């Protein structure tokens, strides 16, 4: 569905995307992850055919965005990071106007709206004003709007940012159902659990380059340990304490508020730490996540 070879994007002298290769097959859920400024948004804008390619080769449905932009855009749906809904219109009208932008016949648009409102569980709010909706409802309406043209590819930029856990899970369920229906999903996200739940495969980008690619489980297996022991000490103590426990770990990360000790047996690490007379204010043993992969590959967290 999407293929890129040595894809590049420059803004003057600044090269935001520095030659990446990506292949996204039909029906996949594919993620672009990375810290802010990694080049994700520039890549997504090129895929959406709203930003021209500076260099390399990009094909969507086998078509060149430079010469077939309108044809490609007619077959994709885009859910932007911010909800750009028309607050002067109600829920039903937002979908109707957007459907008419695609040139869909009035009868088809009305039928499609009924389907989508049922799909995103907003049927009872069809005549409600946008301002009267909760954050989760607005997000579901934005997703419904992006599906009005029955897209083969749905592009989602931070689909659940700012939502409470319950609302996020509702959206995850709807996106999973779309994937089951054969829609190809391409998303960026700052939530590690979201990436692990939704994506079959993902790329980690940093400074405009792909630094790793694989399934979430493959990336965790290849770039981290099975468990992580989190140790919290007093403010400013973590750097000094790191040298006292470094022999207990495969790797150590010193964060401002905690020490991350990577090992295949986190409980054994805690026992050894206490045996050395060290007394953390708080401790936690957890499995490794994609956040740990980010720290390993980029030296930064997603929100840096």
Automatic annotation (TrEMBL):
It comes from the Bacteria. SUPFAM superfamilies: P-loop containing nucleoside triphosphate hydrolases. Residues 2-232 form the ABC transporter domain. The keyword DNA repair does not apply. GO terms for molecular function: ATP binding. The keyword Metal-binding does not apply. InterPro entries: AAA+_ATPase, ABC_transporter-like_ATP-bd, ABC_transporter-like_CS, P-loop_NTPase. PROSITE patterns: ABC_TRANSPORTER_1, ABC_TRANSPORTER_2. Pfam families: ABC_tran. Keywords: ATP-binding, Nucleotide-binding. This is ABC transporter ATP-binding protein. It comes from Nocardioides eburneus. The lineage of its organism: Bacteria, Bacillati, Actinomycetota, Actinomycetes, Propionibacteriales.
